[in-house]
Amino acid sequence: MNQFYSFTFIVILFSQSAVFARPLPVENFKYKKEISISNKNGENQIIKVLLDEEFYKHSYYGDLRLTKGGEIIPYKIQNAEEISKFTEKLKPELLFTKKDELEIYVLELPKLPEGMSYSKLTVSSAYDYETSITLKLGDNPDKFSETKNVFLYKYGSQSSGEIDLGNTKYRYVRLEVETGSNLKFPSVTRSKENKNLYFERTHQIPSPILEENSVLFSFPNQNQSSFQTVKLSFEEKNWERYVTIRGKINKKEWETVFQGTINHTEKDGNFTEIPVSSPLSSEFTIQIEDGENETLHLKEVITVQPLEEILFFADNVSKDSLYTLYYGNPYQWAANFDPYTYPSEEDLREKTPISGKLGNEIQNPEFGYSLIYPPISGYITTTLFYLGILTLLFFIFSILKSKRLVVKETASVEPSN
Questions:
Q1: How far apart are CA 415 and CA 417, in angstroms?
Q2: Residues near 107 by Cβ (< 8 Å), separated by ≥ 6?
Q3: Angle 370-364-56 (CA atoms, 0-180°, nearest 5)?
Q4: 173, 109 contact by CB (below 8 A)
Q5: What letter would DSSP give residue 136?
Q6: With bands split at pLDDT 50, 70 and 90, how would you rate the model's confidence at 20?
Q7: Is the pLDDT of residue 12 over 60?
Q8: pTM of this prediction?
Q9: Is pLDDT of 137 > 90?
Q10: Neighbours of 140 (CB within 10 A)
Q11: pLDDT of residue 41
Q12: Which has the closest alpha carbon to 298: 202, 190, 221?
């Protein structure tokens, strides 16, 4: 009996270890990249790694897996941004003030240059105070579109001192404050907005293939440049057309990644941006339905791939730490991690991420689909399914055949009686 309990305990222990280890079947992924981290010997760090063009060419997006020592590391993926540190302080203009049951202040902020927003409003007072403020923001003093409540205080040398405006572009601020606060607003801070990172590729315009009531352009995309958006520019400034974009999936089957009516006017600028339903890195076609209209003259085609980055927690980073990115499996299901296992917005505010760098792409020498994972498991399941049907049909046929024989024997015996 004791041996039975010991054996049971060992089985449970191994099963629990397997659960916590979460090993990755790396043989299911065709490509991998090693990650190098410059800052070593740190505990509880956040690592940020920018995904590159090689990854987008061979990844199926949902197949991205990160490992350390063969075990899966949870990660978060987000659009990569160029973080701007440029800020400047300006003096707001006090348009109106009223001190009655409430103190009311209306401020006008200076005009914003393109690509900038307001982040903070500095508040001061000659007296100690604590007060709740109703803050309203708007495009003009007649209509305020955004409202928030703020608590401010000043206790001697300690003061909250600033109101977070949340990177707004609204230029008018109304503050409703408890009476006796006597607030002043010496400055407002505006900062340059972060820019999303992306790479673009301009494609040579091929000879159009004229079809009935439409025109077709075929782009070989020889560099296999990955993209999620197509930018089109025509000689005509104002137009409306039904556009279809198709791309080759797995270099075999054509799939429609956009289909719909596009309306463009001169005020929209030179380009029309069309998002595709799934990332492409193969040849693609653009079909424009002219109907009874004259054929549009396509002038420029640019494909755009927004750059993304993954963020993850790393403990005790050292020169022996080896993180590896695996990808290249069209049958892999998308990753689904618990939110607390990867960096949150609050974590990113408290800690500055350390940049990791992807190495060169390597074909995984262990690559070979496992029997228990797609596509092999699918083939096996399908084969077993049809074998089961054939077996069932065989038994049914055997039973029917036996019944026929019994009926035939019975029929042959009856006349002799």
A1: 5
A2: 92, 93, 94, 95, 121, 172, 173, 174, 175, 185, 188
A3: 105
A4: yes
A5: E
A6: very low
A7: no
A8: 0.59
A9: yes
A10: 11
A11: 60
A12: 202
